[in-house]
Amino acid sequence: MSERGECPAGAPSRDGHVLRPEPPERAGGARGPRASERAERERRPGRPGAAVRAEPVLRVSDLDVTFGSGTGAVRAVRGVSYEVRPGEVLGIVGESGSGKSVTSLAVMGLLPPHARVTGSVRLTGHEILGAPEKTLAAFRGKTISMVFQDPLSALTPVYRVGDQIAEAVRIHRRVSGEQAARRAVDLLDLVGIPDPARRARAFPHEFSGGMRQRVMIAMAIANDPDVIICDEPTTALDVTIQAQVLEVLKRARRETGAAIVMITHDLGVVAGIADRVLVMYAGRAVEVGPVDEVYYRSRMPYTLGLLGSIPRLDVGGRRPLVPIGGNPPSPAALPPGCPFEPRCPMAVPRCAEAEPPLEEVDAPGHLAACVRAGEIEAGGSPPARVQRAETGGRTAGPAAAPERPARPARDGREVVLAVKDLVKHHPLMKGTLFRRRVGTVRAVDGVSFDVREGETLGLVGESGCGKTTALMEILELARPQGGTITVLGRDTSALGARERMAVRRDMQVVFQDPLASLDPRMTVYDILAEPLRTHGTGDPGPRIRDLLRLVGLDPGHAARYPQDFSGGQRQRVGIARALALEPRLVVLDEPVSALDVSIQAGVINLLEGLKSRLGLSYLFVAHDLAVVRHIADRVAVMYLGRIAETGPVDRVYDSPAHPYTRALLSAIPLPDPERERARRRVLLEGDLPSPADPPSGCRFRTRCPLFKTLDESGRRRCADEEPQVRPFGEDHGVSCHFAERLNVV
Question: Residue 126 is part of a domain; what is its CATH number?
C-alpha cells in the first residue's frame, strides 16, 4: 500500500473492497487524453498556464472538522468554503493552528476515524466526503493528489524511488511494469532530477531534501490529476532549493493543467504563484480574494498584520516590523464574537458581540470577515492602513525606526569576536569492526570574519555550508583544529578553566528550538536563576523580575514551566536567560526560524531594542536572508565551508558581487505580487556538493551560472585556482575571480 492509502489494482483496500484496473479508455501514454484536452483549452491572459472553465474542478462547501466529543470537543475547521478551477492556484495561508493542513487532509479523506467531518467536497462533480474507501482510493492519485510537507516520511524508505512512482502509475493505469518504469524515469526527468534512469534505482535516503520533494511532485502528477494539494511543500528547504521546487510546480501545472491548492505560511511564495488567496484564522476563512486584491487592498486586520510582520528583502534601513499582539486562540476555547478581537488593534465593542460573516467588500470575489472592513483604506503599507482606520483617516506618518545612538566608525570600535582562518575537518570512517579512514569532511575550511562592539554580523548560507560548525567551534572556547578564535581580546587556545568561565559570562547563546534548549522539569524562575547562582551574583529574585519585564513577559509567570508558554514566549525566556549575566556578545542560532511570522516579528523587534538599549553585539546565524537584512549591520555569506562574500548588509543586498549571493537573494520570494512576478530569478542547478569531496578550484563552479558564460581560459582558472576573499570596495570582500556588481531586487 502506498503512503496515501492507495492499493494496487486487484488488491483489497482497507474496507475489504477490490479496486479494479482502470478501463481501457482511461489508460494511455505519458499524458493521456485529458492532458490533450487541457492543452487545447483557452489560456487566461496575464497569468500563463492557468486555463479557464466555468465549472470548478474542486468545490469545498461548509467544511467542518471536529475532534473528540462532548465538552472536550475541538472544532478545528469551521465552515470553510472554497473552489478552484482547472489551471488555477489557490493559496491558503495563516498561522500555525489555523486549520490549513486539517482542511486539506479532510478533502483528501486522510483524517483519522475519530475525526467528525461534515459539509461537502465535490471533485469533478462527484461528492467524495464520506465516500467509502474504495471510491476514495480510485480518486486519490488519479483525479486528486497531494504533495506532503516532509517527503522523507511520505516516501517508503525500503523501496526504490522509481518503483514507488511506477506503483502510483500502475494503480490507475493498465500498463505493464516496463511501461510504468519508463513513465517513472520520464517523470523524474520532467521534475529536473539529473540522470533520471540511474536515480530511479536509488532509495529515498540517497536523495537530498529538495530532490525528495521533486520525487513527491513526480508521484503527484504521475496520473495527470485534476487537483494537486501541496501542504507546505517548501517549508524545510533552503531558499535556493525552494526556488527550484516552485519552478517544478509551475512546470507541473503547465504540463497537466491541474488546479493547485498551495498551503503555506510564506506569503512571499503565495504572492508569486497564486491566483487567489484564502486567509484562515481560528479554523475559518477570514479573507478571500484575488491575490492582488488581498495583498494591496486587504480588508481584514489579521491579513494586514501578517503582511506587516514580514521582514522585506527589498526594504533597507530599520523599518520596525508590526507584530500581531498576543497568541492565536485555542480551538477548544474560542473567545466570544470575532476570534481575532483580543489581538486586533481596530477592535470595537461590537466585535465581541457576534462573529462577523464573510461578506463581499471591494472587487467581485473579494470577501472579508470584519465589521470594520469598509473603514480600511487601500494604498500604503499594511501598518499605515490600520493606523488610518484607527484614527478616522488621519495619517500620523510612517512609523519611524528606533533612534540608534551615534557610534564611532567601525575601525574605531573594539573587536569583540575575531575568527581567522578557522578550520574544522571531520574524519570520514568506514567499517564496523575494523574501522578505517576513507576521507575527510571539510566542514569549515579557512573562514575569517570579525564582530565589532555594538554590531550585528549575519552569517548566512544553505544547509551544509558550515554555519553551525563555525558557531559550535566559537562556543566551545577551546583550541581550534586550525586558525584562531579571539573572544573579547582573549585567544581561546590559551584559556585556562578560570578564564574560560569568565569569557562564558560575557558570551551567551540563544538556540533555534527554545523548547529543546529549556529544561522542561524546571520553572522559568529556576531556568533564569541557574546562571546567576553559578556565577554567584547573590539573590536572583529581583534580577529575574527585571529580566522578564525586559523581554516583555509577566514576572508573575516565573513559576510556570516552559511547556506552559507559546513558542514566541519560550524564545523570550531563552533570550532572558542569555541576558541574565549581562553579556557583551550574544550568539543567536536561527532564533526565529521555528516561529510564525507574526510571532517572529515581535522577537526580532525585541532583539533590536535590546541591542540598542544594552549595547550588545550579535553573531546572528540564519538561513532567512530577509530577517538578516532587517537585523544585521554586516553579512558574511558561506558556501561549502568558505566565505563567498562579506560586507555591509545594504551594499551586499543591493549590489551582490558573487554569483552565489545573487542566486540566494533572487530565490527569496517577496510578499508583493507585482514585484515577485516581475523579478528575474537565478536558479541554481543541482544540490550543494558534499563537503567530503568539494570541487577543485572554485567550489561554486559546478553550480555557477557565470561559469557557463566564461571562455576556456576563464573556466580553467575557476577549475584550477581557488579564489580568496579580495577587497571589492570599502569594507566589501568577494571570493570570485570574475566578481561584478549585480542588482537582484
Answer: 3.40.50.300
